[in-house]
Amino acid sequence: MAARCKTALVAEPSGAERARLGEMAAKLGFGRVLQTEDGLEALRLVEDLLPDALLVSATLRPGDGVWLALTVARKPLTVRPAVVLMRLPGLMVPRSAELADCGVAVIDRPARPDALSDALARTDVSVRPLPEAIRRRRDELLDRLGVTGHEGRTYLETAVGLAWLDMRLARSLTATLYPLVGRRHGVSARKVEQSMRYAIELAWKRGRIDEQYRIFRGTIDAQRGKPTCGEMIAQLADILRMEEV
């Protein structure tokens, strides 16, 4: 299967710097690179095209790069781009705690190739941390479903978080999502799937049926009685996403 073409969006007021960043992104493996000098246009492109990465200057206008980075991080997107914010050297970035919680990487401008490569590696979907509020809500939903006390719960937490970051992963379970979860925890993809399935089976035997119905309603096959791993992951990721609206 051919590798998917990754997209980067460069939001930078300087034409020369936009071109330089575009060349750097192409060398880092982005097959499609979009460019804009306007923050509102950048937001529209993120919503419409769902790029894999957003490289944004702190001096962007209107608003600024911090506003754009946080706005993108709080949108109910099915693909949440890796966001790299480029600041002037020595400049304090406002709302830095919020940016860190959203997984935004901050580097100096003009960006060096090694610094940009490192920032993109730190914000890749496979390693990017979830915002604290999303982690708490995910764990609350799993608790309500009765998924507790088993290693499959840990794998489900990771899988739901990854699907919230990029819903395409929930449509490629065995080829992409399970191997990603396995690499995160040092186990095989088969182990991930088996453990999650067993955790779900235990939950549907011991958990509260009323809570399970409230969360899944009519989305589960009545004859099967419990969700598959894929259904569990997709449903919880969708709930987390839509609650942001």
Can you tell me about this structure?
- It is elongated and about 60 Å long.
- The chain has a 5-stranded parallel β-sheet, with helices on both faces.
- It is of the alpha/beta class.
- It is 53% helix and 11% strand.
- The model has no long low-confidence stretch (mean pLDDT 92).
- The longest helix has 18 residues, at 189-206.
Any descriptors?
single chain, 245 residues, five-stranded parallel sheet, 11 helices, 5 strands
Please give a quick description of this structure.
It contains eleven helices and five strands.
How are the secondary structure elements laid out?
Layout lengths: L5 E6 L3 H13 L2 E7 L2 H11 L3 E5 L7 H9 L8 E6 L8 H6 L3 E4 L4 H10 L9 H14 L5 H15 L7 H13 L3 H18 L2 H8 L12 H14 L3
Parallel strand pairs: 1-2, 1-3, 3-4, 4-5
Largest sheet: 5 strands, parallel
Strand order of the largest sheet: 2-1-3-4-5
Classify the secondary structure makeup into a structural class: alpha/beta
Number of helices: 11
Low-confidence stretches: none
DSSP strand content: 5-15%
Number of distinct beta strands: 5
Q: What best-fitting shape do the alpha-carbon axes yield?
A: elongated
Into which percent range does the helicity of residues fall?
A: 40-55%
Rounded mean pLDDT score? 92
- Oligomeric assembly: single chain
